[in-house]
Every structure is written in C-alpha cells, then in structure tokens.
C-alpha cells in the first residue's frame, strides 16, 4: 500500500480563537485534495500543523512511513539569493544531498526528469529573475519535487496568476500526482479551478469543516455553511449554479469532472 497521511481530531487555538476543530481525514497516495475556505479559515494553519511548525492543541498526525518527506510550495517566498541563480541549479538545490558541490549521474538524471515533468526545460538555463509568475511557480514545484516527497503541500500556488497560468500549474500538479503517486494538498480560493482537478474537496470555516467528493460537497447545506449565508446550489448537467438567496446574481458558477 502506498503512503498515507492521517489527521485525527486536529484542533488548534491561536490566542482566544478556535482556528481548527476536530479536523480528521486521510490523504492517500496519488490523491489530490483541494482545500477551500474564506480568509482566516485555517487553511495555511492546517499546512503548518502537518509541517510541524504549529503544534495542535489536540489530535494527532500519523504518517505510515517514518522516512516520508514532505514537499512544500508556499504562497510566496523571498528570492534574495535566487534572483540570479539559474533555474536548473535552483531545482538541484532541492535534492536531499544538495550540500555537495557536485551531482551524481543519478541525481542529474533525476533533475532532468523533474524539469521535463514540470515543463520548465525551455527556460532552465535562465535566472529566476527573468521568469514570469507562472514560470516561477513551476520552478518552485520542481524544486519541491527534487526532495522526492511522499506528499506535496501547496499554499495558494496559483494566486496572482492569469487564468492560463493557473490552469497550467494546476494541471501539472495533477499529472505529477498521478505519475509519481504523490498525495497533494492544494489550497486555493478558486473553487472552479480546484473542482476540475481534485479527487476530494475539504471546506474549512472558522472552527468547522466538511470533506467529500466534488459531487458530495456541492450541496446547498454545505455551501451555506461555507459562505455563512443561505446559498442555493442547483445542478444542471455537470454545471452547478450557486446563487445567494434574495439576490438575482450568482455568487459563483463552475463545472466539475466526476460523479456523485
């Protein structure tokens, strides 16, 4: 059986605020879990708990492989030293033994495979400072993959990208998850984008959560809890039209690939 990450009854208090309460789920090998919720709902806190940066007040995390490695792509990162480094060298820095001044033949092959997988070969000779936002995100993903992770945590990797770049980055993450059997936790504010690629969706609100397949989560009761107001979700084929009560304009509409 592949790697599994299990969270059991995770609760986090920050000051007097209940950020996460009794959150439980299992991430399977090769699974893409999209995480959605309003600002301050605890999405980034969840990743920090998994990374061990924040200790939960309650609950436990159970890795079933003690040698597991986590790949992490933050929402933003300072590039003070990376501005002038070449993309290929930057990716190589993610290798477990990157402290050495040389790469083995196997490591060079691995870097080349990752560059091909993340579709950054055409600019692998350029410096980070020459890249667009979407290209940088793919490079950050490549460096994280060089760690040979069992799971990947991505904190809003498509924020501030144009729609085409958002689709490309998310598609690459999905393909990578499939090909390498890596479990993915992908935070986003774009429900439309996530619903096209995720196996399951985790909704977080302050102190509450819900998790299920795309079809299971697109229910009026679940969406009303998420948005904090009454929301009607009407299915039309593979498209959901979500509208707020007493308003004529929809607050969101999107399509999904999958079945209930």
Automatic annotation (TrEMBL):
Gene3D superfamilies: P-loop containing nucleotide triphosphate hydrolases (3.40.50.300). InterPro entries: AAA+_ATPase, ABC_transporter-like_ATP-bd, Metal_Ion_Import_ABC, P-loop_NTPase. Residues 5-231 form the ABC transporter domain. Pfam families: ABC_tran. One of its GO terms (molecular function) is ATP binding. The keyword Signal does not apply. SUPFAM superfamilies: P-loop containing nucleoside triphosphate hydrolases (SSF52540). Residues 240-260 are annotated as: Disordered. This is ABC transporter ATP-binding protein. It comes from Aquibacillus salsiterrae.
